[in-house]
Amino acid sequence: MKKRTVTILGWSAVITLAATAFFGIVVTPPDVLQRQYARFLYLHPPMAWVAYLAFGIAAAASILYLWPRTRRMAFDALALACVESGVLFTGLVVVTGSMWAHPVWGTYWVWDARLTATALMFVLFLGYLALRRVGGSPEQVAKRSAIAALVSFIDVPIVHFSVLWWNTLHQGPSVLTPGLSSRGVHGAMAWTMLLSFVAFTLSFAWMVARRMELERLRLGGASRTLEEQLVARRAEGVPA
Amino acid sequence: MLRDAWAVFAKDLRIEAKTRVGLWQVLPFAVIALVTFAFALGPGKSALSAAAAGMCWVGVAFSSVLVVGRSQGIEREHGVRTAQRLAGIDPAGVFLGKTGAVAVQLAVIEAVLGAGAVGLLGYHVHRLWLLLAASVLATIGLAAVGTIYGALTGAARARETLLPMLVLPIVIPVLIAGVRCWQAASVASGPRFGVWLSVLGAFAVIYVAAGVVLYGQIEEVQ
Amino acid sequence: MPGRLEGVEAVDVVQVVALDGGFPVLAGVDFSAPRGSVTAVLGSNGAGKTSLLRTLAGLTSVASGTGQVLGVSVARPERGLVGRVGLLGHDTGCYEDLSPAANLRFLSRILRADPRRADAVLARVGLTGRLGTTAMAELSAGQRRRGALAQLVLRAPELWLLDEPHASLDGDGRALVDSVMEDAASQGMTVVFTSHDPAGAARVADQVCTMAGGVVTDRQDGDRRGPHAA
User: Fold this and answer.
1) B55: Cβ–Cβ under 8 A, 6 or more apart, which residues?
2) CA distances from B44 to B38, B52, B122, B204 (A)
3) C63 to chain A: which residues are within 8 Å by CB?
4) Is A84 domain-assigned?
5) Residue A59 is part of which domain span?
6) Distance from the CA of B119 to the CA of which of A152, A188, A198, B143 falls in 20 to 30 A?
7) Does the beta carbon of A88 lie under 8 angstroms from any beta carbon of chain B?
8) CA dihedral B15, B18, B24, B25 (to 10 degrees)
9) Which stretches in chain C have pLDDT values below 70?
10) Closest to B182 in 3D by CA, of B200, B168, B159
């Protein structure tokens, strides 16, 4: 990606985030039932969207890396950048979810399907990041990570449904209806929510672009000195 | 593929029969885990029998990490993997054979823990077929995921601590479904279990297929 | 027989650079070996001998360089060398908990070979009677080397790569390795081995290469007169 595109992306993210904050805090009214806490609507759902988007892209990039014809180190960097952002956003989703749940549901945590599945996803991809740190050549790390991302990602729907049935078959799904006022989400709130989705997606895209650039420099930095390394290696054979 | 699978399967069980690492190290661990749970939750008989299925499957899930670690350990040492790769062994066959051998060892652990649950924890078996069907499917799923991750972390530093961190979250669906099936099997009629059998079946099919497709690439990481 | 293949290079690579964790273990190697020949590779520790063998086996990723190994591109061997190359490294490549005989039986099932050949191979490497049925872990270093060598004899691959095959062997053992390599070459297979013993290596080799600093620095004819000889 061109440097200018990344800069424009970054500034778009800043502007839309600022606009989301302005509309979310100043313009939109508080909810009848949830009062000020309804403002989590502009924070929590867009973060969850970004988290799932990130893991989805990471899985797609991993498939492209594993497929010999499309194998590029850039796909590995993309998967890494997406998982890192995804883990960050999943963590924020769980934290903001708890902060939202406490005043509204009266508890920080319930073993609800979506919450539990999200938390598990956090742990799954934390494992991916741990696996990346155990060493090997860049190609080894890339291949190992791509397989782990894929194996983790196909677990997400299984986890989701099993946790859903685990919960609903036992205590009924009624506990966790969001509990917003009956008028639901509309008007200024709907527009602000849409804006928040755009803002967080742009931020995510900017983070990924910057992270990929960093990874490219990290890998490229080594090969630039290859010529010098070769000279030094050959010199080992010459008696001093 | 199936010929190589059978050769690897027979070879792994032969090594276990000679060294008895599973019998003398992993099985006692599983039993100790079960007894430890009993001390933590007991001594009330009703609390124990209610938790029996869960205790067994947590024990099996933890043991699976050890069984897989051993199963991959014999391949990792002394350059065996490289030698066989050059000899042209089919990676998918290796995956199936090793998964099968791990599954057999896990089945033994499940049988012992199940017997312990009946004898010590007051667990009743009313529908044996359900218990067996669930155990077979769950075991295949656990063994397949374990073998994939075991091979993937085989060459990694600190693999002993990495493996449980990777395997345990991913097998949560197996744990949930296995426990629900064993609970349903303990009563003559009642709780729905069809959905759980299908979770176990889907998990087993998906990860066996993933292993068959990916194991060649996994071994190249070594 | 070898005469028919004369002049055909089993291995012919130019300016090969191989990296291990970013470090150039091979820094531009030129190396060739005709079919049916025995090549000795000499050089001090860290010269790149093991890396050369691993690269010829398709186990190391090649950063640059051209040429072929058994007709397969050295830069991108993919799975083209699988089943055709044998590498005897410092590891035995055998299951420690199984006996040499059991290891060979397993290998012959993988190769779909006649299981009875395993007995002949064990006799060839001198692991008869009790030695053949004792777990690898309980054998001496020299016996373990023979067990490892047996795997190569059973496989009889087109290209034999042996990393210090004479190490930890007694006089009989060294003579055995030499005669096994000679047999392989006379049947048209190509042998490359590393050594720290210039005189001993030259006796069995058609050519003797010397490595230093990740490159081949010297090549001389050996005493063996294989496909090179007029």
Assistant:
1) B33, B34, B37, B38, B41, B113, B117, B121
2) 9, 12, 10, 35
3) 226
4) yes
5) 3-235
6) B143
7) no
8) -30
9) 1-7, 226-230
10) B200
Of A137-146, B12-21, B142-151, C20-29, the range with the highest mean pLDDT is B142-151
Question: What residues have CB less than 8 Å from B128, skipping those under 6 apart?
Answer: B185
Partner-chain contact B214 A66, CB within 8 Å: yes
Q: Do B86 and C98 touch (CB under 8 A)?
A: no
Give the integer Cα–Cα distance in Å for B102 and B211: 14
Contact by Cβ (8 Å): A117, A159: yes
Query: Between B45-76 and B91-121, two packed helices, what is the crossing angle to 10 degrees?
Result: 160
pLDDT category, A174, cuts 50, 70, 90?
very low
* Model confidence pLDDT, tens digit, residues A184-234: 556 777 888 889 999 999 999 999 999 999 988 887 765 557 788 888 888
Q: How many residues does chain A have?
A: 240
Angle, alpha carbons B209-B213-B214 (nearest 5°):
115
pLDDT computed for residue A193 by the predictor: 85
CA torsion through residues C195, C37, C94, C23, sign: positive
Kindly report, residue by residue over A133-153, the tens digit of the pLDDT.
887 788 889 999 999 999 999
**C28 contacts in chain A (CB < 8 Å):** 230, 234
Span B52-108, pLDDT tens digits: 999 999 999 999 999 999 999 998 888 898 899 899 999 999 999 999 999 999 999
Both structure tokens of B45: 């008989």
- Locate the DSSP E strands across chain C: 9-20, 23-34, 38-42, 62-69, 72-73, 85-88, 159-162, 190-194, 207-212, 215-221
Helix (H) or strand (E) holding C185: helix C171-186
- Cα angle value B177/B178/B179 (rounded, 5°): 90
Q: Under a CB-based contact definition with an 8 Å cutoff, are residues A29 and A222 in contact?
A: no
Under 8 Å CB pairs connecting chains A and B tally to: 86
Q: Tokens 């089919």 appear where?
A: B90
The minimum CA-CA distance between A147 and chain C, rounded to whole Å, is 18
**pLDDT band (50, 70, 90) for residue A32:** low
What value does the mean pLDDT take over residues A49-69? 94
Chains contacting A (3+ CB pairs below 8 angstroms): B, C
Closest residue on chain C to B86 (Cα): C82
C19 contacts in chain A (CB < 8 Å): 137, 226
What ranges in B2-127 are assigned the alpha helix state H? 2-19, 21, 27-41, 45-76, 80-87, 91-121
At residue C226, the pLDDT reads 66
Total structural domains within chain A: 1
| pLDDT for C53 | 96
Interface contact A237-C211, CB threshold 8 A = yes
Closest residue in C to B74 (Cα–Cα): C95
In whole angstroms, give the CA distance from residue A231 to residue A238.
Answer: 11
Bond before B43 cis per omega within 30 degrees: yes
Q: Which of C82, C84, C97 to mutate to test the interface with B (most CBs of B within 10 A)?
A: C97
* pTM of the complete model beyond 0.95: no
Chains sharing 3 or more CB pairs under 8 A with chain B:
A, C
Domain at A168, CATH number:
1.20.120
Query: Rounded to the nearest 5°, which phi and psi values hold at C166?
Result: -85, -10
In a domain, A240, yes or no: no
